[in-house]
Protein backbone atom coordinates (compact mmCIF):
# COMPACT_ATOMS: atom_id res chain seq x y z
CA UNK A 1 0.00 0.00 0.00
CA UNK A 2 1.44 3.37 -1.04
CA UNK A 3 1.68 6.47 1.14
CA UNK A 4 -1.05 7.98 -1.04
CA UNK A 5 -3.40 5.09 -0.26
CA UNK A 6 -2.57 5.22 3.44
CA UNK A 7 -3.52 8.88 3.51
CA UNK A 8 -0.08 10.18 4.49
CA UNK A 9 -0.18 13.79 5.67
CA UNK A 10 -3.93 14.08 5.44
CA UNK A 11 -6.12 16.31 7.59
CA UNK A 12 -3.24 18.25 9.09
CA UNK A 13 -4.30 21.75 7.99
CA UNK A 14 -1.06 23.25 9.26
CA UNK A 15 2.17 21.31 9.53
CA UNK A 16 4.62 21.89 12.39
CA UNK A 17 7.41 24.40 11.78
CA UNK A 18 10.12 21.72 11.63
CA UNK A 19 8.12 19.84 8.99
CA UNK A 20 7.64 23.00 6.94
CA UNK A 21 11.38 23.73 7.08
CA UNK A 22 12.16 20.18 5.97
CA UNK A 23 9.63 20.38 3.14
CA UNK A 24 11.06 23.72 2.03
CA UNK A 25 14.57 22.26 1.95
CA UNK A 26 13.40 19.30 -0.15
CA UNK A 27 11.45 21.62 -2.46
CA UNK A 28 14.58 23.76 -2.99
CA UNK A 29 16.45 20.65 -4.18
CA UNK A 30 13.49 19.52 -6.30
CA UNK A 31 13.10 22.95 -7.88
CA UNK A 32 16.79 23.08 -8.80
CA UNK A 33 16.65 19.81 -10.77
CA UNK A 34 12.97 19.54 -11.71
CA UNK A 35 11.49 23.04 -11.97
CA UNK A 36 7.83 22.55 -11.05
CA UNK A 37 6.91 26.09 -11.98
CA UNK A 38 6.75 24.88 -15.59
CA UNK A 39 3.37 23.37 -14.59
CA UNK A 40 2.02 26.91 -14.86
CA UNK A 41 2.64 26.90 -18.62
CA UNK A 42 -0.42 24.68 -19.05
CA UNK A 43 -2.65 27.04 -17.10
CA UNK A 44 -4.38 29.87 -19.01
CA UNK A 45 -2.65 32.65 -17.05
CA UNK A 46 -2.54 35.88 -19.03
CA UNK A 47 -1.16 39.35 -18.53
CA UNK A 48 -3.29 41.52 -16.26
CA UNK A 49 -5.00 38.63 -14.47
CA UNK A 50 -5.43 38.27 -10.73
CA UNK A 51 -4.35 34.77 -9.73
CA UNK A 52 -3.91 32.89 -6.46
CA UNK A 53 -1.56 30.12 -5.40
CA UNK A 54 -3.48 28.61 -2.48
CA UNK A 55 -1.11 26.62 -0.29
CA UNK A 56 1.89 28.38 -1.82
CA UNK A 57 4.39 26.94 0.66
CA UNK A 58 7.84 28.45 0.07
CA UNK A 59 6.68 29.95 -3.23
CA UNK A 60 8.02 27.65 -5.95
CA UNK A 61 5.42 28.89 -8.47
CA UNK A 62 5.47 32.56 -7.51
CA UNK A 63 8.26 34.03 -9.72
CA UNK A 64 6.88 32.49 -12.93
CA UNK A 65 3.32 33.49 -12.03
CA UNK A 66 4.52 37.05 -11.40
CA UNK A 67 6.11 37.21 -14.85
CA UNK A 68 3.04 35.73 -16.54
CA UNK A 69 0.52 38.23 -15.10
CA UNK A 70 2.91 41.14 -15.62
CA UNK A 71 2.96 44.51 -13.88
CA UNK A 72 -0.80 45.05 -14.31
CA UNK A 73 -1.66 41.68 -12.78
CA UNK A 74 -1.62 40.41 -9.20
CA UNK A 75 -0.47 37.14 -7.65
CA UNK A 76 -1.87 36.25 -4.24
CA UNK A 77 0.45 33.79 -2.49
CA UNK A 78 -1.83 32.27 0.15
CA UNK A 79 -0.86 29.91 2.96
CA UNK A 80 -1.88 29.13 6.53
CA UNK A 81 1.73 28.87 7.69
CA UNK A 82 3.63 31.95 8.82
CA UNK A 83 6.91 30.43 7.61
CA UNK A 84 5.46 30.13 4.09
CA UNK A 85 4.53 33.80 4.10
CA UNK A 86 8.02 34.72 5.34
CA UNK A 87 9.60 32.63 2.55
CA UNK A 88 7.41 34.29 -0.09
CA UNK A 89 8.20 37.75 1.30
CA UNK A 90 11.92 36.96 0.87
CA UNK A 91 11.30 35.88 -2.75
CA UNK A 92 9.33 39.07 -3.37
CA UNK A 93 12.14 41.25 -2.02
CA UNK A 94 14.95 39.31 -3.69
CA UNK A 95 13.20 39.14 -7.06
CA UNK A 96 11.57 42.57 -7.04
CA UNK A 97 8.16 40.97 -7.50
CA UNK A 98 6.00 44.02 -6.87
CA UNK A 99 2.82 42.34 -8.12
CA UNK A 100 2.97 39.50 -5.54
CA UNK A 101 0.90 39.83 -2.38
CA UNK A 102 1.62 37.28 0.38
CA UNK A 103 -1.59 36.43 2.26
CA UNK A 104 -1.73 34.64 5.61
CA UNK A 105 -4.97 32.68 5.70
CA UNK A 106 -6.83 31.32 8.69
CA UNK A 107 -7.70 27.63 8.58
CA UNK A 108 -10.53 28.11 6.09
CA UNK A 109 -10.62 31.84 5.45
CA UNK A 110 -8.43 33.97 3.17
CA UNK A 111 -8.78 37.74 3.53
CA UNK A 112 -9.57 38.42 -0.14
CA UNK A 113 -12.49 40.35 -1.58
CA UNK A 114 -15.47 38.44 -2.96
CA UNK A 115 -15.25 37.52 -6.65
CA UNK A 116 -11.82 39.10 -7.10
CA UNK A 117 -9.66 36.29 -8.54
CA UNK A 118 -9.52 35.01 -12.15
CA UNK A 119 -7.62 31.76 -11.61
CA UNK A 120 -6.56 29.68 -8.59
CA UNK A 121 -4.25 26.71 -8.29
CA UNK A 122 -3.84 24.48 -5.25
CA UNK A 123 -1.03 22.02 -5.89
CA UNK A 124 0.31 19.33 -3.54
CA UNK A 125 -1.73 20.39 -0.54
CA UNK A 126 -5.39 19.35 -0.89
CA UNK A 127 -4.78 16.05 0.91
CA UNK A 128 -3.86 18.05 4.04
CA UNK A 129 -7.09 20.05 4.21
CA UNK A 130 -9.22 18.76 7.11
CA UNK A 131 -12.35 20.66 6.03
CA UNK A 132 -12.37 20.32 2.23
CA UNK A 133 -15.92 21.61 1.79
CA UNK A 134 -15.19 24.80 3.76
CA UNK A 135 -11.90 25.20 1.88
CA UNK A 136 -13.49 24.85 -1.56
CA UNK A 137 -16.40 27.13 -0.66
CA UNK A 138 -13.95 29.78 0.49
CA UNK A 139 -12.11 29.64 -2.83
CA UNK A 140 -15.49 29.86 -4.57
CA UNK A 141 -16.26 33.00 -2.53
CA UNK A 142 -13.26 34.93 -3.79
CA UNK A 143 -13.26 33.41 -7.29
CA UNK A 144 -15.00 35.30 -10.08
CA UNK A 145 -17.92 33.51 -11.75
CA UNK A 146 -15.66 33.00 -14.79
CA UNK A 147 -12.72 31.76 -12.69
CA UNK A 148 -10.94 28.45 -12.98
CA UNK A 149 -9.55 26.28 -10.19
CA UNK A 150 -6.71 23.84 -10.89
CA UNK A 151 -6.22 21.31 -8.12
CA UNK A 152 -4.12 18.18 -7.91
CA UNK A 153 -4.46 15.08 -5.78
CA UNK A 154 -1.41 15.54 -3.61
CA UNK A 155 -1.03 12.39 -1.52
CA UNK A 156 -4.51 10.95 -1.99
CA UNK A 157 -6.19 8.87 -4.68
CA UNK A 158 -7.86 10.73 -7.57
CA UNK A 159 -11.28 9.36 -6.63
CA UNK A 160 -11.02 10.92 -3.17
CA UNK A 161 -10.07 14.28 -4.70
CA UNK A 162 -13.01 14.17 -7.08
CA UNK A 163 -15.45 13.16 -4.33
CA UNK A 164 -14.34 16.05 -2.10
CA UNK A 165 -14.75 18.55 -4.94
CA UNK A 166 -18.20 17.33 -5.93
CA UNK A 167 -19.43 17.00 -2.33
CA UNK A 168 -18.53 20.65 -1.69
CA UNK A 169 -21.24 21.84 -4.07
CA UNK A 170 -18.95 24.77 -4.87
CA UNK A 171 -17.17 23.49 -7.98
CA UNK A 172 -17.81 21.26 -10.95
CA UNK A 173 -15.06 19.31 -12.67
CA UNK A 174 -14.67 20.64 -16.20
CA UNK A 175 -11.64 18.60 -17.24
CA UNK A 176 -9.51 15.82 -15.83
CA UNK A 177 -5.83 15.45 -16.66
CA UNK A 178 -3.29 13.14 -15.03
CA UNK A 179 -1.62 16.13 -13.34
CA UNK A 180 -4.71 18.00 -12.09
CA UNK A 181 -8.44 18.65 -12.22
CA UNK A 182 -9.71 21.82 -13.88
CA UNK A 183 -12.82 23.10 -12.08
CA UNK A 184 -15.39 25.83 -12.65
CA UNK A 185 -17.31 27.55 -9.85
CA UNK A 186 -20.93 26.86 -9.08
CA UNK A 187 -22.35 30.29 -8.24
UniProtKB/TrEMBL annotation:
Residues 46-155 form the Methyltransferase domain. Pfam families: Methyltransf_31. GO terms for molecular function: methyltransferase activity. The keyword Transferase applies. GO terms for biological process: methylation. Gene3D superfamilies: Vaccinia Virus protein VP39. The keyword Electron transport does not apply. InterPro entries: Methyltranfer_dom, SAM-binding_MTase, SAM-dependent_MTases_sf. Keywords: Methyltransferase, Transferase. This is Methyltransferase domain-containing protein. It comes from Desulfatibacillum alkenivorans DSM 16219.
